[in-house]
Every structure is written in C-alpha cells, then in structure tokens.
C-alpha cells in the first residue's frame, strides 16, 4: 500500500527530476523545518504524492502546467478521492504560487499541519 517496491525506480526518478517549484518547496519542507517530517515522492496505492507527512496523514501536491489539462484535472480528482478514503488530506499549490511567494505557501502548510495535529492528538 505504501511505497510499493515495484514503483521504487519511478519514485527515485521523480526525485532526481523534480520540477523547479517542487525543488523550491522541498528546500522548505525538508529536515522538519516546519516541525514535521515530510517525505518526497511518497507512494500510496498506485499514486505517488509529491510531499507526504505520515504523522499527520497530510499530502502536499504541486501543480505545474500539466495539471491544467482537463484530463489531468480529472485524474487529480480521482487521486484526491482515493487519498481521502485512506484518511489523507491533500492540499494543492500551483507552481506559480511557489515562485511568487514561497513564504506564504509555507505558512499555509504550517497552519494546516497545526490543524491536523490538533485533530489527531488526544
């Protein structure tokens, strides 16, 4: 279910060829800079999530230009539904948002983390 070994090579390839928006965001998410451990290119079922925090069951997706295609929008909805059924919350950002204001994006992720942590903690 998680990080299927059959997709290990694909996840590795995606990490090596991350788009610029993902690279910028990763520099802010790595090493628990927001207080929580995030993994990049994390597999859940047949899907690979850009960034995932298992502790909070929070997925962060970065949408580039390919996500504007109507066919990809439909696939994104299917993925979000699947992840929702697994108890994973997905938040999405457009690459342009990251380029224009990475600090604002990080702030939104941080507050979502805090909200999820309050909902998960006893």
Account of the 3D structure:
The protein has 122 residues and is an alpha+beta fold. It has one domain (5-120): Endonuclease, Chain A, CATH 3.40.960.10. It is built from 4 helices and 4 strands; from the N terminus they run ααβββαβα. The protein has helices spanning 8-16, 20-29, 70-85, 95-120, and strands spanning 39-44, 47-53, 58-63, 89-94. Strands 1-2-3-4 form a 4-stranded mixed sheet, sandwiched between helices. α3 (70-85) links the parallel β3 (58-63) and β4. α2 runs parallel beside α4. It starts with 7 loop residues before the first helix and ends with a helix.
What is the H level of CATH, i.e. the homologous superfamily? VSR Endonuclease
Separate helix tally: 4
Note the quaternary state here. single chain
User: How many strand segments?
Assistant: 4
Q: Which stretches are low in confidence, meaning pLDDT under 50 for 5 or more residues running?
A: none
Tell me about the biggest sheet?
4 strands, mixed
SSE pattern, N- to C-terminal: HHEEEHEH
Please estimate the helix content: 40-55%
Query: How many domains is the backbone divided into?
Result: 1
Tell me the layout of helices and strands:
Elements: H1 8-16, H2 20-29, E1 39-44, E2 47-53, E3 58-63, H3 70-85, E4 89-94, H4 95-120
Parallel strand pairs: 3-4
Antiparallel strand pairs: 1-2, 2-3
Helix pairs in contact: 2-4
């Amino acid at each position: 279910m998680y990080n299927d070994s059959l997709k290990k090579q694909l996840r590795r390839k995606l990490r090596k060829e991350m788009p610029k928006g993902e690279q910028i965001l990763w520099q802010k998410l790595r090493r628990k800079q927001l207080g929580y451990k995030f993994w990049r290119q994390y597999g859940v079922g047949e899907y690979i999530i850009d960034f995932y925090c298992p502790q909070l069951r929070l997925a962060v997706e970065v949408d580039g230009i390919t996500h504007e295609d109507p066919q990809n929008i439909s696939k994104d909805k299917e993925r979000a539904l699947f992840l929702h059924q697994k108890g994973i919350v997905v938040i999405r950002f457009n690459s342009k948002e990251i380029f224009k204001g990475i600090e604002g994006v990080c702030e939104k992720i941080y507050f979502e983390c805090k909200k999820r942590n309050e909902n998960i903690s006893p």
